[in-house]
Design a protein that fits this description.
- This protein is α/β, with parallel strands linked by helices and 288 residues long.
- It has 3 domains: 11-121, Tetrapyrrole methylase, N-terminal domain (Cobalt-precorrin-4 Transmethylase, domain 1); 124-228, Tetrapyrrole methylase, C-terminal domain (Methyltransferase, Cobalt-precorrin-4 Transmethylase, Domain 2, 2-Layer Sandwich), CATH 3.30.950.10; 241-287.
- The protein is built from 11 helices and 10 strands.
- The chain has helices spanning 27-35, 44-54, 70-83, 102-110, 123-131, 148-157, 174-185, 209-215, 241-253, 258-269, 273-287, and strands at 11-15, 38-41, 61-64, 85-89, 115-118, 138-143, 164-169, 190-195, 203-208, 224-228.
- A 5-stranded parallel sheet has the order 3-2-4-1-5. Strands 6-7-10-8-9 form a 5-stranded mixed sheet, sandwiched between helices.
- The longest helix has 15 residues, at 273-287.
- It is flat, with a radius of gyration of 22 Å.
Length: 288
Amino acid sequence: MEALSGLAPRGIVLAATPLGNPLDASRHLCELLAAADVVAAEDTRRVRALADRLGVAIGGRLVSFYDHNERSRVPELLEAAREGTVLVVSDAGMPLVSDPGFVLVRLALEASLPVSVAPGPSAVTAALAVSGLPCDRFTFEGFVPRRVGERTGLLESLAGEGRTMVFFESPRRLGQTLSQMAEVFGADRPAVVCRELTKTHQEVRRGTLAELAQWAGDGVLGEVTLVVGGAPGGRPAPPPLEALAVMVLSRADAGERLKDAAAEVAAAHGVSRRELYQAALDQREAGQ
């Protein structure tokens, strides 16, 4: 292996880490770990262990950066990024994808600081590719909500989604989630459970939602990515209400009456006119 270059770009660098197998680490990641002035890690113990496995000495200061300290840590990281390199890594996969980092990136961009990415393993695209389900169009829904009411609301809103859907789920709740999906989406809807992607005991199990719910009933272990086929003949779910409200406000800023804009956008996307109008009012008030 050639010597590392020791070069890293100034600003914030988002780097993907292996999902399990250190051999999936990129040369780019190794160079960044060695050269960055600050390494902001979701779990400092994990990134130290990864660096040891890769034979790389972390050259800069290592700090924790996770959900509960993200906002308090951001000013320090922004200051460091003005003069040097701040490398952001999560436990596995790409930062910001159901992991910390979004607040840092938004504020860095607002401060005109460089933000770059070192791509690598992704549980979402890996599971999608191996699933055997259509992957030309898909939707990523992140972690399934823990609360029953929120989970029910999400699944009901996706019942008619025509694209393949990708979810993250806790192994402890997988059986319950699959059973509820079978009730809402239909027992015969095809799905794939990908467990421990890129690890030694990687498992990909395919079947209907009912079959997979029965299989997972006694519990499973490891990190889980769930891929579910879209509804036959279904139409894509409408954009989030917040996004549609932005469209309404843009039309209103151009001179259209707010109520008229809300009515037309709601009709075009199949959502409640009243709810969209209220969402637009809320956003306008928040903006002021």
